[in-house]
What does this fold into?
Amino acid sequence: MATTRDGLNWPRAQALADAERAAYIARNPESEKLAAQAARHLLFGVPMHWMNDWSTPFPLTVRDASGARFRDADGHDYVDFCLGDTGAMFGHAPPPVAQAIARQSARGYTAMLPSEDAAPVAAELARRFGLPFWQFALSASDANRFVLRWLRAATGRSKVLVFNGCYHGTVDDVFVDLVDGVPTQRDSLLGQVHKLTDHTVVVEFNDLPALEAALAQGDIACVLAEPVMTNIGMVLPQPGYWDAAQQIIKRRGALLVIDETHTISSGPGGYAQAHGMQPDALVLGKPIGGGIPCAVYGFSGELARRVEHAKRSAPPGHSGVGTTLSANMFAMAAMRANLEQVMTEHAYQKMFALASQLADGLRAAIVRHGMPWCVTQVGARTEFQFAPSAPLDGTAAQAILDSELEQIIHLYLLNRGLLITPFHNMLLVCPDTSERDIEYLVKVFDDCLALLI
Ligand SMILES: Cc1ncc(COP(=O)(O)O)c(C=O)c1O
It folds into this structure.
C-alpha cells in the first residue's frame, strides 16, 4: 500500500529534523526567553493551547506584522504564507482597516446599539453573497453555532448533517466522524457530556447516495458544509457534485448552510457565488474584518421569514443566540473598511495570479524530485498533499496526513524566513505577497525536497 513517505529517505529526513530544531533554538534566543517567561503564568505556556501545535521547539514570538510580512522578537523577517490561518488573508493590518479602527477608537467601541456602519455593511454583504438578511457574531465558531440554533428553531427538525472530517470551529454538534463507517464522537473533544451522535448525521463528501439516504429520514434541519473541504487537507467537490447535492437537499426539505470562512479564497462572493450555488444560509468569519474578531451570517428571504417567525413565536427571554459584544461598533467599522476597500475584485485578481504562480512552482519542484505528491488550489489558497492525486473524501484525506513529515518541511521553511499554516500544508497569498516572495518559497521548498530523498 502507498504511504505518505514513499519516495523519501526517512533516516535522512529525521536527521534533517534534528538539525532544523537545533538551528531554530540557536537562531531564536529572545523567543526562547519570552517563552520561558510566558510559561510562568500562561497555561501550556501560550495564550491558546493550540499555539503549541507548530513545528517549533518553543513558540516564535511575533513583534509586529504588516502586509505579507512579520518580524519576530529576535528581529528576523518572515514572508507569511499562513496569514493567521485566513484571519489575515488580505494582509496584516491592511491600511484602510487600520485607519477605520483608529478613527473608531476615539468614537466608542460598544453600546448595544447599531452604529451607522451597520446598514452599509449588511447592504454590501447582501450584494456580494446574494442573500438579503444578515446578522453578526464574534467568530465563525459562534456564527455557525447561532445558525444551527436558528435553523433548528425555524424548521422544527433537530438533526444536522455534516461531512466526515469537517471543521467548523468549536461547534460541539459537528465533532462527529465516521470511524470504519460508524458515526463516532471525536475523542479529542474535551468536557462534552452530551451524546452528539443523537443529533448529528455524518456522511462522506462527494457521496451522493449517502447524502440522499441520510436526508430521506426527513429529520435533518440542515446540511452544514464547506463547499470545498479545507480542514482535513483540501477535498474538492467532484464535477456536478454540488448541483446534484443541492437538488437532493431541497427535495428532502432540508436547508443548505455554506461555511465560506476558508473558501472565501475563491472570490469576493466566496465559492458559492463563483460556482453558482444557492445556499439558504452562509457563514463567514476570520478575514471579514481584516483580522479584527467578527463574523457574519446571512439568510435567504424565505429562511429569514421562518427565522423571524420562530423568534416571534417564542416566549420572551434568552434565545441562546448572540453575545454582548457581537456587532460592536469597532468590528462594524473594520468590516465596512475591509469590504469596501480591501476585499476588492482587484485584490482577488492579484491573489489568484500569485497563487497560480505558487501552485505551478510547487508542482514543478515535486515533479523535479519525483515525489508522488500533488498540489490543490482553491483561488488564493494552495496546498501540497502527500498523495499522487487529491483525495475525494474525508477518510482518504485523513489517510494522507503525516504531521511528522509536515513539521520537518514547515520548520525547514521557517528557519529560512517562510511561515506556512501549521496544520497540513496550506499556503495563502495576500495582495501584498510578491512574485519574488513566491520564487523564494518555491526555491526553499525545492531545496528541502532535495534533502528528503
Ligand atoms: C471552515 C471553518 N469554519 C469555521 C471556523 C472557526 O473559525 P474561528 O476559530 O475563527 O471561530 C474555522 C476555523 O478554522 C474554519 O476553518
The mean pLDDT is 97.
